[in-house]
Here is the input.
Amino acid sequence: MPAAVAIAILSILLFSATTARAEEGRVNVHLGLGAGLLLSDAAVEAVDSAGLDFSLKIDLPLHRFIAPQLGYGLVYLPGQGGAEVGVNMIMAGARVRLLNDERGYLSNIWPKAPKGNAWGNLWVDLGIGYAHAPTVSSGSNWFALEFGLGYEFSLLGPLQIGPYISYRHVFKTSTDASFLAIGVSLSFGYPKRLPKSEPLPRAEPEPEVRPNIRGRPGDADGDGVADTADRCPSTPPEAQVDEHGCESLRGRMLFPGIKWKGDTSDLAPGAIFEIRRVAELLKANPRVLAEIGSHSESSLSVEENLRLSLRRAQVVRDELQRMGVYATQLTVRGYGTSVPVLRDGSKEERRRANERIELRFTLEQSP
Here is the structure.
């Protein structure tokens, strides 16, 4: 009955616990050293009840929270008058990581390694094997069970350290023996599989405010053309315009006011006003075709940057159509990171220069 209750509690823990993989490597070595206590063995006399406990284990994770494990354990109990007991145990089983923090070590011996915090992992060891005690019997080969529980802190990578407690039971022919150990465990994982450090949230720059440098009454955009005759009322004041208040189209034009929220295809505040500027230009020139080219510079992969830039170009196209631009005038293309204008400088400088919406204009050939 007690064994069934223990199995039920352990099963609930396994299925409800957070799965783990953070600071663990492909191969993990665990060392344990502590005090070994003899709980019961009527066949052993003149031996101290306290001694030394040592263990060496190796596991190879096959899943996020469980790893097959092989280990060696030694319980040494000194005695009086030269009497002593040394129980060697070869065990096979598994290490289960019930809880595990995935943010790396608090500190690291490698200068450029990512930093995290001290929280490590809560683990359980289960093992079966055989025990051999030559000082008790030269022919001793007994069946043994092991159960261990410990918590290791991620203080200094690539090592983890923490307290543990283990229980070992040896099934002897005459009377069983049981041992309890309390000590400190040390783990080393190689090679390490540290998660990539998450980038810090990037503060969105405030939308650029264009001063109205001309500011005449009846001239809302300050381009020198009265509102009653202005076909492009969203033209920036610094732009050169024709008699209708519209910019002269060039083969390629940048629209720096079209910005995005982080690594998404959501428009940043103020971007819609720049898109309206593009819409007014195209509606004033209905025979002009425009390719909406989107260039990105995010921390994503090359393929994800291509998909992101294409989605952004499609967002601009949809907004232009909503503002009345003919769908036949527009095509979209995502360039990703393939055409940077700045290759050097800091990450933020490259992002400001390379992340852009660029339109290429051509004249429709058919009337």
